[in-house]
Design a protein that fits this description.
Oligomer: single chain
Main location: cytoplasm
Number of domains: 2
Keywords: Cytoplasm, DNA-binding, Phosphoprotein, Transcription, Transcription regulation, Two-component regulatory system
Helix content: 25-40%
Organism: Rhodovarius crocodyli
GO biological process, one term: regulation of DNA-templated transcription
InterPro entries: CheY-like_superfamily, OmpR/PhoB-type_DNA-bd, Sig_transdc_resp-reg_C-effctor, Sig_transdc_resp-reg_receiver, WalR-like, WH-like_DNA-bd_sf
Number of strands: 12
Strand order of the largest sheet: 2-1-3-4-5
Shape: elongated
Largest sheet: 5 strands, parallel
């Protein structure tokens, strides 16, 4: 929702009863209390769900957060927000939620969410009155950002909430650089040298985006990764992408690690969901 004067839509009451509980925030002990693992080294950045009906505002927020190291999934309204939260392949660390939305308002969505989940929520609104902020916090919001806001302030507030709630502990201290090799189906990927060795001992050239994509698959074997998650991995290398761009990138990677016609696929397509890496992955 944009902050234009006179834009005061009245949200239609929606009494939504989730068919399944809202997902809980990822429960992990603080980084300082556990040994670092390979998954920590390959872990994605904190994942923010941005629920904002104004397309331009949504795009600007998403781009700024990505530029500051966050993974972002956009949603236009409560319906899309629910769909994202019910997608097993997408783990959300924090929701940036506009108060004035078409259909169910941000306050209504927060009340639904708080019935079964403690995922951190930061309200985003053009309403600056103190009472509005107090009510938002009383309903269970973790913070409140008023439009117009400074970009640095937004990032600082989100990081503060993540720190305070422990929703994304991997973001609180930089992980050590990954070392060693990942192995799969006779292949070896050197994490330090960023080299891929084929079963016959030959080196296979990978672009930066292909390497990052393969790392994402190896960090999460046997788990369906959505196109949105894979897009976030590749964007760091080749900028703005769209859904079909990731299909092309996956196809290029397949040609390099599945070179023999008729050989079992290592990356399978899951219709309507994304891709899954099916080989066993080792670390040495």
């Amino acid at each position: 929702m944009s902050g234009r004067a006179g834009d005061r839509r009245v949200a239609t009451p929606v009494f939504f009863q989730p068919a399944e509980p809202w997902p809980s925030v990822r429960g992990k002990p603080p980084v300082s209390e556990r040994e670092p693992t390979l998954r920590d080294a390959l872990a994605p950045q904190p994942h923010i769900l941005v629920v904002e009906d104004d397309g331009e505002m949504r795009h600007l927020i998403a781009r700024h957060l990505r530029d500051n190291g966050f993974t972002v999934t956009p949603a236009r309204d409560g319906r899309e927000m629910r769909e994202v939260l019910r997608t097993p392949a997408i783990a959300i660390d924090l929701i940036l939620l506009d108060v004035m939305l078409p259909g169910a308002s941000g306050v209504e969505l927060l009340k639904e969410l708080r019935a079964s989940s403690r995922i951190p929520v930061v309200f985003l609104t053009a309403r600056a009155e103190e009472m509005d902020r107090v009510l938002g916090l009383e309903f269970g919001a973790d913070d409140y950002v008023v439009k117009p806001f400074g970009r640095r302030e937004l990032v600082a507030r989100l990081r503060a909430v993540l720190r305070r709630t422990g929703a994304a502990p991997e973001a609180q201290s930089a992980p050590a650089a990954p070392v060693g090799e990942l192995t799969f189906d006779g292949w070896a990927l050197s994490l330090g040298r960023r080299e891929l060795t084929a079963p016959d001992g030959s080196l296979v050239d990978l672009s930066g985006a292909e390497f990052d994509l393969l790392m994402a698959f190896l960090a999460h074997p046997h788990r369906v990764l959505s196109r949105e998650e894979l897009l976030e991995t590749a964007r760091r290398r080749i900028g703005d992408l769209f859904d079909r761009s990731i299909d092309v990138l996956v196809s290029r990677l397949r040609r390099k690690i599945e070179p023999l016609e008729g050989s079992p696929p290592l990356i399978k397509t899951v219709r309507g969901a994304g891709y899954v890496f099916v080989a066993e992955v080792g670390h040495r």
